[in-house]
Give the backbone structure.
Amino acid sequence: MYFLFRKRLSFLFTFNIKNGKIRVQVTVLKLIEVESMFNKDFIFGCATAASQIEGAYLDDGKVPSIWDKFCEKENAIIDGSDIKIACNSYYKYKEDISLLKELGVKSYRFSINWCRIINENNEINYKGIEYYKNLAKECLNNGITPCATLYHWDMPQYIFEKGGLLNDDFSDWFSFYVDVFTKNLSDLIKDYITINEPQVIIFLGHRIGNHAPGLSLSNKEILLAIHNLLKAHGKAVKIIRKNVNNSTIGIAPCSRGVVPVNNNNELYNKCKEYYFSLRNDYEFPNLISIYSDPVFLGDYPNEYYEMFKDILPNITKEDLELINQPIDYCYQNVYSGDYYDLIDDKLTKLPFPYGYPEGNINWLQVVPESLYYIPKFLYERYHHPIIISENGICCHDSISLDGKVHDPNRIDFIHRYLNELEKASNEVDIRGYYYWSLLDNFEWAEGYSKRFGLIYVDFKTLKRTKKDSFYEYQKIIKEVK
């Protein structure tokens, strides 16, 4: 197979599979020019999240979030850090937007911190609303379309103390916040994502407990939390439609690629079936269909009812109709995947060979074909236009002696994944791609130890330094224009 790097090198990757192990040989072929297959309407963007970059801990009426509290827990964050300052983007947003303009993106996906909008007395914080108005105006004044994620994990602590996702009133509390926000910004923001990575919210935050709020719930409680989260999504969609003319709406789950190692049709179909399966009663909160089937197809998967028939939450016809509100896009966050083959007629995950390329984090192996197969699988099941809402890699970045940040691994990653996305775009409807992330930032439980940004942030001085990958992504965007 070939990965064609626009005006760069082309490589031949040869897979040799023996005894269920992958051996990869890489041959550099030649310099080659290829014309991008993305059209001029394709959305190239960058993404961030409020808690990871804003800082301004309790400034201008903000109340504590579950992540503010989680950071106070001993050993919760690997480097002992917190989000009180982060990248200080609350005060440096104009500088960040100017960097986005220089980068040339069409869209900036940022999230709204619920804790800045509604306080513990259920009062509206207009200073928080004013901040996001200014942020959206700054985007628009620089020719950038704002895309707002309404819930990127910063649940107010006072909501959690009322029961959080285990309280059936959660969706109403969320709805009040969404209603207030969208009414106030209806003329500035038209593109919305309701919830980011519901799998991570539930699996890491409520099953494993290494993300806020740090719970380890039973299956029965997990199922209730999922259902309440999806009802919150459905109510938010209805509110956005009511308040915002010409809105576009989606939800942004994440998934790991189930990548066949050859073009065998049987293997392809088994990989797709496995991708959407619930697999087992421990891992199910981390998988795709339990969230996306109700949103796009109007009901939970059959496996859901079979696996959990004795502990299901109360699911009404009205609930399912609510969750199944019409939306515009199938967003998806994609970083990595695994290779699979049929061995003795059984679908088998193949181990990565020693030294296989990966990011500076244990789950991010470089599997570019994930950005080919995941969009195909999603489109074939849900029949909605695809937007990749996050894709990126963390590397061991540092300031070199020349004062620059050289990150060839990230450049290589971006090209490989975009080549696969281009390939998929010839077969299914793909509308956009957001690189994660604009800035190095607070990487949740990993603190500031993992750098995903196109821009290096010195977390002592808060100085921004554009990495080589910034300029490379800029070139890719210009080629499409």
